[in-house]
């Protein structure tokens, strides 16, 4: 299975004209973008992966096409560890663009696992030694943002009607508004619905000292990313503020970042993103590190159906699965329209991995190519 070509496609698909989403400084309107990575072997097997756009869709694409592809073409597609190590030795440990390279590597690695599964005729979760059981799922993605409390409660109720048994809210506004939104949603939902909350790195240590006990009192399962990923000292101190788990990891890269994150002994859920952390190969290593510390892994998931499906495969194959982050965005054509639907929410609020070979997403390549960014 010699790799013949690696091609990254910078894709942007339009959102409805009246769509917008806001949570703190994060605003989305107009389009959603991602980098789709196509790897083809000489014997004609095609694998697809996703690299996070990192708000630099063209830069990530160029990094893959101009630098990483040259390291990968001609290698054996089944040798995921050797290819990972080659990119690590050639780029990550020496050239100073660690996150960018890890993101590019993630897209290639995901595509290689898709190829491995297709070659074996097995769905990825089985190739990884997993099984098809229900994975606990919460409503995430670009949903439940900085809306007025009443409107937010209506959105939350609508998601519960769609089958979600857990929802994640956003924090990082004023504390007053954070508490008002959290209280209104908590009061509006049955006790059986679990809640998490994500501050998207926007809290100070003092804000977190006030907020964490309030969210704990309201029964929230975790407080996600109160601080930037570089501020491990704040995470270490905040781990003791209240009886609520801290979650973090969507902005950490490779097992080396996760080792430091786990070593502070304050994180209740690690959240590597398969399109950022170094791919499926690296997520398996991070899962094992977390497992040894009895910490569940709840992957951050965005943006295309490839990453969502791959995340469910991973959760089905590790011994410390946490929660799957489903895409509850009101609109995301990169999730809904580019190929096979990645999951269904079952009656008990869980999801199961796809059973097709590899990741199990049949990509509509013509549609992707019709939405490639030209500049
Ligand atoms: Mg988050």
TrEMBL record:
One of its GO terms (molecular function) is lyase activity. It comes from the Bacteria. SMART domains: MR_MLE. GO terms for biological process: amino acid catabolic process. SUPFAM superfamilies: Enolase C-terminal domain-like, Enolase N-terminal domain-like. The keyword Lyase applies. Residues 149-245 form the Mandelate racemase/muconate lactonizing enzyme C-terminal domain. CDD domains: MR_like. The keyword Transport does not apply. It holds the Pfam family MR_MLE_C. Keywords: Lyase. InterPro entries: DgoD-like (IPR034593), Enolase-like_C_sf (IPR036849), Enolase-like_N (IPR029017), Enolase_C-like (IPR029065), Mandel_Rmase/mucon_lact_enz_CS (IPR018110), Mandelate_racemase_C (IPR013342), Mandelate_racemase_N_dom (IPR013341). This is Mandelate racemase/muconate lactonizing enzyme family protein. It comes from Flavimaribacter sediminis. The lineage of its organism: Bacteria, Pseudomonadati, Pseudomonadota, Alphaproteobacteria, Hyphomicrobiales.
């Amino acid at each position: 299975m010699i790799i013949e070509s690696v091609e990254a496609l910078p894709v942007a698909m339009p959102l409805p004209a009246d769509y917008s989403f806001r949570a703190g400084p994060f605003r989305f309107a107009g389009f959603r973008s991602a980098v789709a990575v196509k790897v083809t072997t000489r014997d004609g097997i095609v694998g697809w992966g996703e690299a996070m756009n990192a708000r630099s869709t063209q830069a990530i694409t160029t990094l893959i096409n101009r630098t990483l592809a040259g390291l990968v073409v001609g290698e054996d597609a089944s040798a995921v560890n050797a290819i990972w190590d080659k990119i690590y030795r050639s780029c990550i440990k020496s050239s100073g663009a660690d996150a960018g390279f890890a993101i590019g590597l993630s897209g290639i690695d995901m595509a290689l696992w898709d190829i491995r599964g297709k070659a074996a005729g097995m769905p990825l979760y089985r190739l990884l030694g997993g099984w098809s059981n229900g994975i606990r799922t919460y409503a995430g993605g670009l949903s439940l943002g900085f809306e007025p409390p009443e409107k937010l409660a209506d959105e939350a109720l609508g998601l519960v009607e769609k089958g979600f048994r857990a929802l994640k809210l956003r924090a990082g506004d004023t504390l007053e508004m954070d508490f008002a939104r959290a209280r209104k949603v908590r009061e509006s939902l049955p006790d059986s619905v679990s809640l998490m909350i994500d501050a998207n790195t926007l809290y100070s240590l003092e804000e977190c000292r006030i907020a964490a006990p309030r969210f704990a009192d309201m029964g929230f399962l975790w407080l996600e990313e109160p601080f930037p990923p570089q501020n491990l000292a704040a995470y270490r101190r905040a781990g003791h503020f209240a009886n609520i788990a801290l979650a973090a990891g969507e902005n950490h890269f490779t097992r080396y970042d996760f080792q430091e994150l786990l070593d502070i002994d304050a994180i209740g859920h690690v959240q590597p993103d398969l399109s950022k952390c170094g791919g499926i190969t690296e997520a398996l290593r991070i899962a094992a590190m977390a497992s040894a510390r009895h910490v569940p892994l709840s992957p951050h998931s965005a943006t295309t159906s490839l990453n969502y499906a791959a995340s469910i495969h991973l959760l089905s194959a590790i011994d410390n699965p946490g929660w799957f982050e489903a895409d509850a965005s009101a609109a995301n054509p990169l999730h809904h329209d580019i190929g096979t639907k990645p999951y269904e929410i079952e009656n008990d609020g869980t999801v199961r991995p796809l059973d097709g070979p590899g990741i199990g997403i049949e990509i509509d390549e013509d549609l992707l190519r019709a939405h490639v960014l030209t500049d």
